[in-house]
Every structure is written in C-alpha cells, then in structure tokens.
C-alpha cells in the first residue's frame, strides 16, 4: 500500500561531516532575510557549513537546501487546520534530522508557528544548550510578542540562547526575560539591501496581494476589483502585480480571469528586479514596509478567514496592522480591513495618491522618519551576531 503523501518527507544528510548552523525560514520574506545573513557570514568565514530549510534565496546564498519550506507558508488558524497532517509530518522530520546530524546551532527565522514548537521540543529533549545539550538555539526576527501572545517571550527566554531583533523597541520588550537580545538593524535599511521598489510618478500602480496562497486568494480579488474601478475612471491606467513564485503566478492569473479584459492593463512580474510605482495597494506583509521606505504613497488591504479574524480581534492589541504605521504610530498607509476593503474606497485612495501633491510630500517625510528608526546599529548587523554566537559554541580549534 502506498503511504499517504504527508508521510513522505525525508531530508538528505549534510554534504559535509559537520553542520555549523541549520537555518529554518518558512516564509518567502524570511528566506530572503536569512540569505543576506548567511551571505554576509560566508563572506567573512567561507568555511562555514550551513544547511537550511528555506527557499531559493538561502540556497543561492550558499546554504545546502534540505527542503523548500516556503511552499508550506500558511497563515491563520483555519489554514493551518487544512494542512495539519502534512505540517505534523514535516515537524517530525525536522526533529529527526536535527537529532541525527547535531548542528552546532539552529537559527530560526521568523515563522513562529513552527519554529517555536521546534525550539520547545529541542529543549524538552535536552538537545538545546539551555537544557544541557550541544546545540545553541538562535532566533532572528522575533515573533511579534508585543502584539499578541506576550507570554511567549518568557518561553523564548527559557529556551533560546540569543535573539536578533529588527525593531529597536523589541530589546526593551525582552528585558525581563533573561534572554540576550540585540538590535541587529532592519534588513531593509542595511547597506546590503536594495529596495525592490521605487517611486516613479510615470510608472504603473503597484498591486501587492502577498506571498501566501491563502492571503492571495482573499486579497487579490479585492485589489483587482479596486483597480478595475480605477480603470473605469482613467482608461490609460496600468498596474504591475508582483509574485513570489511560479505557483503563485498561476493562482493570480486564475483569479484575474474573472475580471474580463482587465488583464490588458495588468503585468505580472517576479519580485527579483526593482520595480517603479506611482502608488500601491498592498497586503500588510513585509512588502508594505518596502514601499513605505521607497516613498510610494498607498493603502493597506487586509482580509483573512472570518474565524481567523474574529480570533485575532480577541488576541491582538495593536492599533495598526501595517508595520510602518505601528513604528510611526500614525497611518502612513490607511488600512482597509475585511469588509471595509471595497473597490470604491480603494479606488478613491489610488486617485488621491496620484493627484494629491501634499500626500506625496507627507509620505516622503514619514518615510524619512521610518528610516531613522530602523537604521542599523554601529556595533554590527545580523551576520556578525550569528558569527559571534557560533564562535561561543565552536568546537576546540575552530573560530569564527
């Protein structure tokens, strides 16, 4: 009898005799951020042995890709339930590989739904160094404990060896946990990062429905409907829609088929080249922060499963969804959530972004404030943080 597909996970062994660090990044954005971290570390220490559960960016940076984890980038209670058996089998294979190959460190990148569970299991089994084992547990890009499930920070303080945070206020958040926490700068303002978007008053409208299938399925129809309303007002308008992978492109194209000849006005492009935009309608993900830093005026659109949203309203205690708005404590991007995200309101936002000169000036001023908040600290960025932690856990005769 053929085993079910969800039981078929099997990661290859490392190509080297030992593993200095296993990086676990389950989202497209985390894969990109982790890749810059690893690229910087390998530039300084070319002999570093790195394996990863991530995606194409980590692989291109020089890590041995054990499994493309970004294809399991699901979000929300309802979505996790649909993939429960697969995620459980994947979780068990991750643990098996770590037990067998004993990496000197595991560096978790964002993706707390799985990563904190793996960390907890490694601690319970005595594999983590804080539990007497030989593997350090590092975490880059903290779960947003300041937004919801604040008690997680105490579990993190008990299990983890070091935390590299990308927002300066997060250092204070973890002050009472005993966890060594360092602000390593936000990747979007580091010298190693080129913004994938830039403001261009003659460019198309930018549509950013997200990088997860579930989010795209809910947000893309809203964006396409709003842009169709824009086109009904201005026949010459065009739009660019960015996608993170080929399977997401197929999903977007299938959704766009429901909007008649609107496809003549929209171009799909991968998120690999710098793209100009005069205004943006964006999901609340990391690309919204890119756009804010690039001085592009726009608005945030957020829709999720009604059950997920209802649960979130009970648990989340923050005034904004967009990270730029949260950091600035003011709405650089107006937010349209659930039913409030309708095509007329969003089309009005785009019209204002195009025609209102004062709005563009305000966007530029607030973006400058944002860059100052996120600037990289003088003591070093994330690659240095990683290497320092590996040096502290290095085997005799090996230094980084």
Task: Characterise the protein shown here.
This protein is α/β, with parallel strands linked by helices and 400 residues long. It folds into two domains: 5-185 and 376-392, Glycogen Phosphorylase B (Rossmann fold, 3-Layer(aba) Sandwich), CATH 3.40.50; 197-374, Rossmann fold. The chain contains 15 helices and 15 strands. The chain has helices at residues 28-44, 56-61, 77-82, 84-101, 112-124, 152-159, 169-173, 213-233, 246-256, 286-293, 306-315, 323-328, 343-355, 357-374, 382-392; strands spanning 21-25, 50-54, 64-68, 105-109, 136-140, 162-165, 181-183, 197-199, 205-208, 239-243, 266-270, 275-277, 279-282, 298-302, 335-337. The strands form three sheets. The protein has a seven-stranded parallel sheet, with helices on both faces. Strands 11-10-9-13-14-15 form a six-stranded parallel sheet, sandwiched between helices. Helix 1 (28-44) crosses helix 15 (382-392), helix 8 (213-233) packs across helix 9 and helix 8 packs across helix 13. The protein is globular and about 65 Å long. The termini are far apart. 44% of the residues are buried.
> What is the name of the CATH architecture of the largest domain?
3-Layer(aba) Sandwich
> Alpha-carbon distance between the termini?
49 Å
CATH topology of the largest domain: the name is: Rossmann fold
Helix content: 40-55%
Question: Per the principal axes of the C-alpha atoms, what is the gross shape?
Answer: globular
Rg, nearest Å: 21 Å
- Uncertain residue segments: 1-6
Number of domains in the coordinates? 2
User: How would you spell out the order of helices and strands?
Assistant: EHEHEHHEHEHEHEEEHEHEEEHEHHEHHH
